[in-house]
Amino acid sequence: MNLVWSTARAVADEAVGTARALRELGRAGLIGPVRPDRLARMATAAVRYRLSVAAGYEAGAARHPDRPAIVDDDGTLTFGELHERTDRLAKALAASGVGEGTRVGVLCRNHRGPVEMQIAVGKLGADVVLFNTGMSAGQRADVVDELGVHTLLADAEFTDLPDSCRVVRDLTDLIARGGPGPLPFRPTGGHTI
């Protein structure tokens, strides 16, 4: 009987703690009521992309499509705009051979490009390789070869990039071009390396 009582007590304590945490998150404005249609799209994002960058931004687009998601030197992108742009980018990447099991590198400073690339790659189930901006050209080449990087997004300031992978300097054309067909509904969860 004591085991049953202590288990019930532990469950009750956990429920009270969760309720308190939810109340505080609500007071802070981090959570709140959600329209049922948006809640369904948020749940779909979680099922589709699991616990990933793509799932987080997809849920943001479902819940708050008109709220700012990224603010950089080029202006503001809302969650809805980011969703549309990364869908087109993912389709363009898929048309170039990026998909599950492929690795895409990111060698960028702080701007929308690396975020958009990570989301788009996540929508395809590919892996993202984040490069240290302090790496030498030789180190970059070693990482590309060792990890089999298919495509590398690199800011213009980074020169002496390896010839063994496709180098993309700007996502504008890829996003504008898009690609054919739908994105995979539930791609294998990619990794961040």
Q: CATH architecture of the largest domain, please?
A: 3-Layer(aba) Sandwich
**CATH-assigned homologous superfamily of the largest domain:** ANL, N-terminal domain
Overall tally of domains: 2
Question: Percentage of helical residues?
Answer: 40-55%
CATH top-level class of the largest domain: Alpha Beta
Basic shape: globular
Biggest pleated sheet? 4 strands, parallel
What oligomeric state do the depicted chains represent? single chain
CATH topology term of the largest domain:
Rossmann fold
Sheet/helix structural class: alpha/beta
User: Low-confidence parts, pLDDT < 50 over ≥5 residues?
Assistant: none
CA-CA gap between termini: 50 Å
Strand order of the largest sheet: 4-3-5-6
Which characteristics define this entry?
Rossmann fold; two-stranded antiparallel sheet; alpha/beta; 193 residues; 6 strands
